[in-house]
Structures are given as C-alpha cells and as structure tokens.
C-alpha cells in the first residue's frame, strides 16, 4: 500500500500561509511530526505555549475531519473565530446552537467542508451524535485541556471519561492526541490510562517561557502595591487573582473608585454578569479583571501583560496555569505573586472545608507545601518552577525573576541557622513552625510552658526578632532544603541532612538579608532593593506612538467585525509592525502573525498607515 505521509515541510508551509509564522516552536515541531506519523501523542506545554497549532496544522494535512474536544463554550467560539479569520474551515457544535444549526454543521462535515469540528465532551455521550460521527471520516481526535480527565487535576470533568469509548467505537480508530499544561506525574498517568492513549509519544516542553518575569513579593502592602502597579501600567490588560469573592469585590471597588476601568468575575455573580465582564475584557473595553480562579480557563486572550496574584494559589499547577495567562503572544509580561503567611491559613481552611478522602487531602497538603516553598525560594524562580515539574533547564539563571533581580547582599546566616536547627532538635522534631518560633522568641504562651520548653537552652535566643520574622526565616530554610515539613494539616518541622552539616559547622549558610530588614523601607512597587524593579515592560517611546495608532486601527476593525481585537492581529504582531514599518505587501507578509488570508482581510489599513507615514 502506498501511504502518503505529509511532511514537516508541508506543515511549515501551511504555518506560514495561514498563521503567518515562519517556524514552529521547538515542542510544536516534535508534536506535529509525531502526529503526522500517525502516533497517539500527548503534548504538555504551558499556557500560551501554542498547543492549538499542534493539532490544527496536522488537521489541514490529514484527510477528513479533526474532532476537537474542548471543555468550554467560550473557548470553542474563540478558537473557531480565530481559525475562520485565518481562512481555515472550522465550526463548533454546542448548546448555544439551534437544532437546525447543528444539523447544518453536521451536513457540512459530511460534505467534507470542515477541517476542524469543536465539541464539548458531554456531546460524546449522546447516542445520536455518536451515530452521526461514525458516518464521517475522522482522522484525528484532539483532546484539549486533557487534564480534565483526571481526578488529580484541578478541573475534573466526568464526561472526559467518555472520550476513550467514543474513539474506540468509531469504525476506524483515528489518532488520539491530548494536550494540557498540567505536567504532574499523577495527571500524566491518568491521561494516558483514562484516555487510553495507544503507546503514545509524550512531549513535555517549554514550561519556562522566557518572556515571563516571575516575582514573589513578601511583606508588601498588597492593596497599595496593586493600586500603584495598575496605575503605572496605563492601558495594558491584566488579571488580578484573589482567593475569595470578598477580596475580589473589595479590590474591584477600590480600582473603580480610583477611576480604573476594572471588571470582576467570581462564582457569586450571575451568569450574565460573568459573561458580560468576560466579554468586556476580551474586547479590551475593560483593562483589569479582578477574579477568583473561576475565571480564566476559557481565556485565550493573548495580550495580557500581567497576572498578579493577590493571594498564594493552592498549588504550583494552579499557579503556573493562571500566571501563564500572561504574555501568550510572547511579549514581555509580569507574573507577580503577593505572598503573606495569612494565605497559608486560607488555603488550609479551603482544603479542610472540602470533603474528600484522606489520601487526596494528604496530596493537597503536600502540594500546598511545595507552593509555599516556591514563595520562600531565594533561588531563580524559573528554576524552582521547572524543577517542580521535572523539566530540565540550563544552569543559567533567568535574570529577570525577583530572585535574580534581588540586589540585597548575601549575608552569613550560619549562626541564626544553628540556633533554629538546634531548637528544633531539642524539641525532638515534633512541632510546627509557630511553636518553634514561640520558643525561640521566649514566649510565655500556654503550650510553651506546658511542654516545659522555657527551660531549653535555645528558649528566647531570638528574642530581638518578632515571632513572625522567626517563622519567615524558618520558612526560608524549608524552601532552601535545610528543613522539611511533614505532610498533613499540622505539619511538623524536621531537620534535613544539610541542617546536620550546619550544626556540625561543616556548612556555611549564605542568604539574602532577611526580608524584614529591607522590606519595611522599600514601600510599594517592590521598592528600591530590586534591580529593574519598575516592572516596566513597555517598548521605547518612539515605537509606542506608532504602536498606539496601530492599536486604534485594530480596534476599529475589531468593532466592525465584532471579534476581540487580538483575533485580528495580536500585540506581538503589531509590535513587530511598529519596528519594521512595512510599506509593501511582501514586507507585510514577513511580519509574524500576518498570514495570507488575514493580510487580504485586514492588512490594507495597516499598510496604508505606513505608506502615509513616509
Ligand atoms: P495554548 O493553547 O498552549 O495555551 P495557544 O495555542 O492559544 O496556546 O497559543 C498561544 C499564542 O502563541 C497564540 O497567540 C499563538 O498564535 C502563538 N503561537 C503559537 N505557535 C506559534 C509559533 N510557532 N510562532 C509564533 N507564535 C505562535
Ligand atoms: Mg489552549
Ligand atoms: Zn531567575
């Protein structure tokens, strides 16, 4: 049999023609090649990594239809809009359509007029739909947000379990490809097992996107920081995540009172209120979205310039997913986590509130602990993140995270470390951070006296510091691997082998000066102690005016077409135009993100702008 396998070169040509991108990203190339070879494929890439292209481009090269399983209606609509704008025939079927519209789309698919069809997983459970699908030539089923199949994931959806029976019931089994940003081993196992991927090629790539400047700020006045940041970031779109509805409402009201066009989103609002504010954000009518983690899975908005976490999220998976909504277009963007120890209490409370089995609970506490360690980490935050997900990275620090930019001097903390470690040792490694701190502080609290800890030689040895400062210091030692916490609701601090070396005087502890000495004077906006701490990610002033004018042209087009502006061209594309100043069609087509169809549809007003500029 002479099977024709499309080549990677063909794929690359289509990428240029439709998307206007000259090259695949590293991970995309491997995934596309694997799919073109007909292998089941699992692609793990961060939010903004470019998962859609991984199945959309192969869809163009394969005969018949690619069926995309997508969890959210808004997500489907966005993707289909974007595809149609580029000149690719795609459609979705979901509950917003009438029966007549659904039938029309199925007929179009039967006539071979569609390359991609998006549906929610629930649809696979409907008999009539399965029947219709078995009459079609389906060459690939692509499962987006595939972590939803796993109970360990954060968005478990029962109907994702219907994917595998559906795929295997088809007259000819298509290739199955699954995509997600969640890379933990449990979730990976579940995806392979529950979707029944057949001997899949697995690709984990690019979690550390180098356009993202990660920061953790401890000891800031959170509200002042946010007011200040939002005000100094002009019209740039951003998301502020808070843990509770109440905090969302508070921050939202404060921003509004200060004349900042903000929107809010949480589960306490009506469907229509939520939809309205999501739309307004997508269309750049409002600039800042204040939201709980209920917001975001459906957001493919590419020009989000910052994501600020008002509170620490529950785990690294959630953090990376949420923070990763910044800078999907590859432009420099900020991911700022405002940490306070109170956040730990909130997260523990949430774990306890949620009825679940012990095994799962233990797992959540463990993940929470790892999140806390990230917040206290003194080393490069990108390393910390990649290490967490087990992705290899170079030994070169990122240079732009808050740890890398931290200019405070390294000081010798060996003596402090010895005092703390020795106290923990004397307390027999059976108590938590706060009791250890009380003892070191020399507190008279009931528990201290009850256990007779006031007679320990380390009692009161750190009385010049506050208990809060002492526990912060202990947390830094935990994050740096000298100490470890046991799992569970009331974790106990234990010494690690490295701590024993310190106690024996065999290891010197060098650390950044503890937070409290510098943070107080630093005030808002990360203060002066951090190099380049203005969080300025804007371009030079000259391009800025051109860029602004291009944005206005885009806005007009977007309003005319009733699509979000980034679907016309994203910020990265406008940015490149504003530096290159293309004055011919050929020059325009060389700009990343300007494909042939888009050029024909939208290119002319931009071209004319540059021609008139000359
Ligand atoms: P994900 O689904 O992984 O979160 P998307 O598929 O939405 O990410 O892609 C994120 C952004 O990256 C989009 O704006 C997309 O156009 C852009 N992108 C994807 N692949 C490339 C590429 N090869 N070159 C340039 N930009 C790309
Ligand atoms: Mg996606
Ligand atoms: Zn770094």
TrEMBL record:
Lineage, top ranks: Bacteria, Bacillati, Bacillota, Bacilli, Bacillales
Protein name listed in UniProt: DNA helicase RecQ
Spans annotated as Disordered: 513-538
Family indicated by similarity: Belongs to the helicase family. RecQ subfamily.
SMART domains named among the record's database cross-references: DEXDc, HELICc, HRDC, RQC
Residue ranges of domain HRDC in the record: 540-614
Record's catalysed reaction(s): Couples ATP hydrolysis with the unwinding of duplex DNA by translocating in the 3'-5' direction
Gene3D superfamilies listed in its UniProt record: HRDC domain, P-loop containing nucleotide triphosphate hydrolases, Winged helix-like DNA-binding domain superfamily/Winged helix DNA-binding domain
Cofactor(s) needed for function: Mg(2+); Zn(2+)
